[in-house]
Amino acid sequence: MSDLPVLILSLLALAPIGVVMLFLVVLRWPAKKTMPLAYVGTVLIALIVWQVNVSQVAAASIHGVVTALNILFIVFGAILLLNTLKASGEIAVIREGFVSLSPDRRIQAIIIAWLFGSFIEGAAGFGTPAAIAAPLLVAIGFPPMAAVVAALIIQSTPVSFGAVGTPILVGVNTGLSGHESVMAVVTAAQMTFPDYLRRIGATVASIHGVIGTFIPLIMVCVLTRFFGTGKSIREGLAIWPFAIFAGLAFTIPSVILAWSLGPEFPSLVGGLIGLLIVVPATKAGFLQPKRVWQFPAEEQWEPDWKGELEVDLHSEGTSRSKGEYLKAWLPYVIVAVLLVATRTLPDVKAWVTSAAVTFGWADIFGTGIGTKTQPLYLPGFLFLLTSVICYVLFGMKGSAIRQSWKESSSMIFGAGAALIFAVPMVQVFINSQSETMSAMPLVLADGVSSLFGSLWPLIAPTIGALGAFIAGSNTISNMMFSLFQFGMAEKIDAIPHIVVALQAVGGAAGNMICVHNVVAASATVGLIGKEGLIIRKTLIPMTIYVVISGIIGLLIA
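User: That's the sequence. What structure does it adopt?
Assistant: Structure tokens below.
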């Protein structure tokens, strides 16, 4: 370990995060300018203070570039699918369908972002829900910034069980499995490690169940406060019966599924059950507000709300048949089916992840850092495939197809400029361990732990959120910090599986503000350059989430 005091090292480890928060959030620099600066700063700290080998920094950077290209592929696919629906005219049908279901923007946000988004999160992860929900909300009349904020806020409760339970089954599992101290606790509890992992997952679902029930209400309050004519939280609170009902429609099934079946199904099946409950209830007028809430007229939108994605919001209303609505929604149904199939059917998953279609570099420069891409497994490929199906399904002309590709390509460059530095910065930060020092995230966590002692459960979710903010992934956050959180629990004589669960809960909440997700979601609606303004808004619900989960942890751990 370095001769520098732990506090100084912790502050140095915090510097890259501080640079991002200062320039992106406080000074409102665009991400495409902030992230190169953050990358250079992180590399210098890694080389000079942590004394990381140049080859290790280079390897981490290469892995980051490949990951950034994977993210850009997903974003491009999501934009292309929406532009395809726009060019075909089917977006107008989808919009009219939602107006007939409910003209209230609060209810539309809850159904699309919260319930449909949770289902997509359970199937795919990768930030896919925001990439789908944000442009879809714009297509039905939401200001682009409002759409992105709503889509990011729901990147919390369902995230712990995203991609069929990956943050638990891969993240926590990798972090804890095989370690002597963990196995001693598992043996003492007369359990197998898989059973212990399921207990952690069930505890995560229970904590999420308490807080997540209120996420739809928090989301609509943020919308009415920042994007309403009256800028009033009260207009969001006015819909509390429906919002709580929609929250429970997801959280109750997700908790039951976590305890009974394990981490694979809470978000995937819970989101589907929520849709099957809430959509018919909405049609029946159940708990519908007396006053319909709308955004201001488009000409009254503030400049910061607007993006490059343009949708005609003034098409004439037409009476449509159920068949027409189903046909318009069919592309999203196809995407959902393909996502579920490629992630849950063993034969299909084996084919799309086989060695023949996997490209990578296993041991870059002999550092042990590897990278890979599986194009057929990425949601971006499924979006592209669905777009091609749409050409036939809607009988699209060549000119319309070319226009959709042209618009989608032009929108992706801004996101690329930010992500191509943001993700390598993260990878250098995570892979900064040297012969004498632990990686920066662990040094930072160690410094924070010295300040809180027996109150650690209160801050454990914040560490998880910090990990997700840095890494852009709940899974990576859990990999980095699960063993550290387990050790802290033993150190203060707390219940280890609860403290690890708090880590996973915080890691999910951190997705609301992580730069990867914000840049990717912003790109889908053409909001590049306004990432700091978005984080300012999503930082509020993220803080609420980690504070409440920390209080719950303090009471039960």
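Strands lie at 359-361, 371-373.
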